[in-house]
Give the backbone structure.
Amino acid sequence: MRYSEEKLRNRKSLALFSGNSIHRVRNILPQVPVPRNSQFRGVLLLTTALLSSCNSHRSSSPDRQRNATFVKVTATLDAIANSEDNVIPNAVLNRTKCLVAVPANAGQGIASCIESLNTWTRPALITFTGKRSPQSDLLLFVLGDKEAKSLRSGRLQLQSPQSISRGPLMHTRPALTDADLNFGSLAYEVHGKAIDGASVQGTVTSAESNSASPEKNDPEVRLQRSLASFFNVITPVGIILHHTAVLPTLEKVPTDKREVDSFHQAKGFDVVCFGHEYHVAYHYLILPDGDVQAGRPERCQGAHAPGYNAYLGISVAGDFSSKDNPTGARGPAVPTPRQEQALVQLCRRLREKYKFPIQRIMRHSDVSPTQCPGDRFPFVRILSEVCR
């Protein structure tokens, strides 16, 4: 039986303008006896393959491009977070409301804004047009309320000197003033392992973004986790000393880090840092026998003293308040000799490692309205020993 060319054309048109082309071609064509002519059969198979390739390219290319952008930005943020050289100052990270990141040799990047300590908005695709070094990754830290609002609205213009400035670095400007941060945005360029402040002018415009909820293995999920981790990384600038006091849930002084970790997890002190989640608020815990147990990593932001969480938190197990623990019934009333020795050695090591002055070793009560680490804590003696 012969079929007219008109009937075949109608069947092919139905496949072209219907959803998944290849699926419908397969459903339709088997109903049509294919002529035995080998040349015609070859043309028909080639047409089916082209329809499949064209439809596949249209549907997957934007996803591939989006994922490739997410992967590149994630790699850049992780590389900076894991480097101790040329780091971005804590004050810049703490004031950032939104981040714009554009990979090298690309006009398209991402923008995301912070919602809470460990939560950032879904990264939206953006385009950047203007003056920049195309061979370097571009990072824009949006500090100003007006600029953050403009970015969320879909268009951020970075033209005036007040709207954009070169970003400072930790090794050149370890202590920043409000004047140093009084800009709408700060710009950095990343080239390989090197990072520096950048002179940038241009416009950030929102691009089409994927509205589907990401799956756990999606590059978007990894990028959101990387964003949270990146902004929770610190360069320690000092030490805050604490006592654990009595944990209300246990009604006793903790005997190891796990008990503190469980209590702090219930209090919501968790932080995402270097791809992991930590609960214990301190960086170190010193037990009565002098055992030093590590809490969260040194370069992860603490949760032990609001406004001073770029300081390392060291807690000594005990309740050193004469009011709350007058007889020592609630646990050690003063630090043990082994605790004091371990604390002095730890403070010396950290001070040497991060090069901060002795004045930046402080008690919790020096920076917050609290009695911690208690009136029986031998602060003056500890400082004198650290300075020896």
Q: What stands out?
A: The first helix runs from residue 5 to 16. Residues 1-32, 54-59 have pLDDT under 50 and may be disordered. Residues 80-230 form one domain.
